[in-house]
Amino acid sequence: MVCSRAMASKTPVGFIGLGNMGNPMAKNLIKHGYPVIAYDVFPEACKEFQDLGAQVTDSPADVAERADRIITMLPSSSNSIEVYTGANGILK
């Protein structure tokens, strides 16, 4: 019998928004063995995660193409709307 928890750790997790709240949450996923596919509007936030082994993408749409699960941690409704429905959004 395969442990579902072990299988879950092999499934990439998309993470959009690496700011005050998203940064420690995404780091915790990496710490516990989850492959993270990351995006943030600020490239300097992504550099740290690339150094930790995360895949960094150019847009939320790229995250959606590479991950079946996506966590967003964004500061406002307008940011969320843009990330989900914008020209390069998750729902593209």
Automatic annotation (TrEMBL):
Gene3D superfamilies, per database record: NAD(P)-binding Rossmann-like Domain (3.40.50.720)
UniProt entry keywords in alphabetical sequence: Branched-chain amino acid catabolism, NAD, Oxidoreductase
An annotated GO cellular component: mitochondrion
The EC number(s) this enzyme carries: 1.1.1.31
Xref: SUPFAM superfamilies: NAD(P)-binding Rossmann-fold domains
Domain 6-phosphogluconate dehydrogenase NADP-binding: 13-91
Enzyme class: oxidoreductase
Keyword NAD listed: yes
MF GO annotations: 3-hydroxyisobutyrate dehydrogenase activity; NADP binding
Pathway: Amino-acid degradation; L-valine degradation
Example GO biological process: L-valine catabolic process
Substrates-to-products reaction catalysed: 3-hydroxy-2-methylpropanoate + NAD(+) = 2-methyl-3-oxopropanoate + NADH + H(+)
InterPro entries: 3-OH-isobutyrate_DH-rel_CS, 6PGDH_NADP-bd, NAD(P)-bd_dom_sf
Source organism, top-level taxon: Eukaryota
Family in the record: Belongs to the HIBADH-related family. 3-hydroxyisobutyrate dehydrogenase subfamily.
Name recorded for this polypeptide: 3-hydroxyisobutyrate dehydrogenase
Species annotation: Callipepla squamata (Scaled quail)
Taxonomic path: Eukaryota, Metazoa, Chordata, Craniata, Vertebrata
